Amino acid sequence: AHEVNNPISGVVNLTMLMQRIMKAEGIPPDRREEFRGYLSQVAAETQRVGRIVSDLLAFSRRSSPQREETDLNQVIHRTLSLLAHKLELARAELRMELEPSLPRIHADRSQIEQVLLNLVMNAAEAMPDGGTIGIRTRSDREEGEVHLEVTDTGTGISEEHLSRIFDPFFTTKDEGKGVGLGLSVVYGIIDAHGGTIDVESWPEGGTRFQVRLPFNHPEGNNPA
């Protein structure tokens, strides 16, 4: 409630400032830039509320995934097209290496999209001064698995935090930047699909998440 209330309070304050700037004849020319700045902050804070609510809804969901044959590479392209503007603002350069003949997985398309969204946005947020996000897919046909790797050149995760990052409500972000549910949601979705997720991070910077999903065994081991 605290995390949701903060941005809402910010939006209320910003709109009051905008109302003060507005005159009967419109926005004074000398204050238009200031007005645009407030409007941009309103948009950012509203998007943050939306992401928090989305994570809360996904975390509380207990229904089984609605699975169908899914092209993981196609889901990646769709998700990245939705995030293109945000990644541009974050000065994040994308490098993709997608296996062309990747086997299809039996998955809930919207949930896999949410996994990608969380991993990619976390990578972007870990690079406050910009950097590179790598996305790679490949198949391990002997194990009957599809692998997805998301890497970044960001600040990295300390060893003391690494073992806790999938815990609900655990976050290393500053107050007001998140509720610590994104990676818990990711873990739950991957687990429900019978897959695994691992993370590596290095002191000099950079983090890699590796997701493994079965393509020969459509039924997960632990339905949500």
Q: Strand order within the widest sheet? A: 2-4-5-7-6
How many distinct helices?
6
Instruction: Sum up the overall morphology in one term.
Output: elongated
First-to-last CA distance: 25 Å
Helix/strand-derived class? alpha+beta
Beta-strand fraction estimate: 15-25%
Helix content: 40-55%
Q: Which runs of at least 5 residues are low in confidence (pLDDT < 50)? A: 218-224
- Major sheet: 5 strands, mixed
**Tally of DSSP β-strands:** 7
Mean pLDDT: 82
- SSE sequence, one letter per element: HHEHEEHEEHHEE
Radius of gyration: 20 Å
Description:
The chain is an alpha+beta fold. Helix content is 44%, strand content 20%. It has six helices and seven strands. The protein has helices spanning 2-21, 32-60, 72-89, 109-125, 159-162, 182-192, and strands at residues 68-70, 92-98, 105-107, 131-140, 145-152, 196-201, 207-214. It has a five-stranded mixed sheet. A two-stranded antiparallel ribbon has the order 1-3. A hairpin with a 4-residue loop joins strand 4 and strand 5 (145-152). It is elongated and about 70 Å long.
Q: SSE layout and pairings?
A:
Blueprint: H1 2-21, H2 32-60, E1 68-70, H3 72-89, E2 92-98, E3 105-107, H4 109-125, E4 131-140, E5 145-152, H5 159-162, H6 182-192, E6 196-201, E7 207-214
Parallel strand pairs: 2-4
Antiparallel strand pairs: 1-3, 4-5, 5-7, 6-7
Helix pairs in contact: 1-2, 3-4, 4-6
